[in-house]
Design a protein that fits this description.
- Helices cover about 75% and strands about 0% of the residues.
- The longest helix is centred in the first third of the chain and has 33 residues, at about 15-45.
- It has helices at about 10, 15-45, 50-65, 80-95, 105-110, 120-140, 145-155, 160-165, 170-195.
- The chain is built from nine helices and no strands.
- Helix 8 (about 160-165) crosses helix 9.
- With about 200 residues, it is an all-alpha fold.
- The chain has a domain at about 15-100: Rna Polymerase Sigma Factor, Chain: A (Orthogonal Bundle).
Length: about 200
C-alpha cells in the first residue's frame, strides 16, 4: 500500500503560507481577547457606559477587531489599536443612547467619594449622589474634551499614546487635557450652583 506524502514544495506553497498567516492572526486575536477584554470593559465604564451595556459593547469592540484580525501580526501596538476601536464604539454609543448612570469606578475617582475610606450608609448615599453628578458633568462635556479626560485622567494612558489613539498631534492632546480638567471643574461648580438654587 502506498502512502501519499506532501512534498516540501507543497508545504511552502502559497496556500500553505496563507494558512500559516491565518493561523497566526487567529492566535494573535485569541491572545488579545484574553489579555485585553477586562481592560476594554473598564474603559467603556470610564466613558460612562452603564454596566448593563458595557459587556455588549466590549463584545462589539472585539467583533470589529475580529473582522480586522489579519492586521494584528503587523501591528506595533495592538493595545493602542484596540483602544482606538473602543473609543469609536463609545462615541457611537453616546450618539445613540445617553448614559443612565456612571460605573462605580468613576465614583471612586471623584472628589466626593474620597471623603472617607470607611464603608458606611452615609458613604453609600454619597456615592450615589456623586455618580449622578459625575454623569451629569460627562454628558455636558464635548466629545473631544471627554476623550482627553477619560483616556489620560481615568484610563491613565500616557499623553503620547492617547494622542496616537485619537489620531491627533501630541500638543493638541495636551491642550485638550488642560481644557478638559478646567471644563470638568467649571461644570462641577455649575452643578453646585444649580443644586443650591433648587434647595
Amino acid at each position: 500500500m502506498s502512502v501519499c506524502v506532501d512534498s516540501p514544495t507543497d508545504a511552502s506553497g502559497p496556500g500553505a503560507r496563507v494558512g500559516r498567516s491565518a493561523s497566526s492572526a487567529e492566535a494573535a486575536f485569541s491572545h488579545l481577547y484574553a489579555e485585553q477584554f477586562d481592560r476594554v470593559y473598564g474603559l467603556l465604564g470610564r466613558y460612562g457606559v452603564a454596566p448593563a451595556d458595557s459587556e455588549d459593547l466590549a463584545q462589539q469592540v472585539f467583533s470589529v477587531a475580529f473582522a480586522h484580525q489579519s492586521e494584528l501580526p503587523r501591528l506595533e501596538n495592538p493595545r493602542a489599536w484596540l483602544t482606538a476601536i473602543a473609543v469609536r464604539v463609545a462615541h457611537e454609543h453616546y450618539r445613540k443612547r445617553r448614559v443612565r448612570r456612571v460605573k462605580a469606578w468613576l465614583v471612586e475617582h471623584s472628589w466626593a467619594a474620597r471623603a472617607t475610606d470607611e464603608e458606611t450608609p452615609e458613604r453609600e448615599a454619597l456615592k450615589s449622589e456623586a455618580s449622578t453628578r459625575v454623569r451629569g458633568v460627562l454628558e455636558r462635556m464635548s466629545e473631544k474634551l471627554r476623550d482627553a479626560l477619560v483616556l489620560v485622567e481615568l484610563e491613565e494612558l500616557g499623553t503620547r499614546e492617547a494622542a496616537q489613539i485619537l489620531a491627533i498631534p501630541h500638543n493638541t492632546l495636551r491642550s485638550r487635557q488642560r481644557l478638559a480638567r478646567a471644563e470638568f471643574e467649571r461644570l462641577w461648580r455649575v452643578q453646585e450652583r444649580e443644586r443650591e438654587r433648587h434647595r
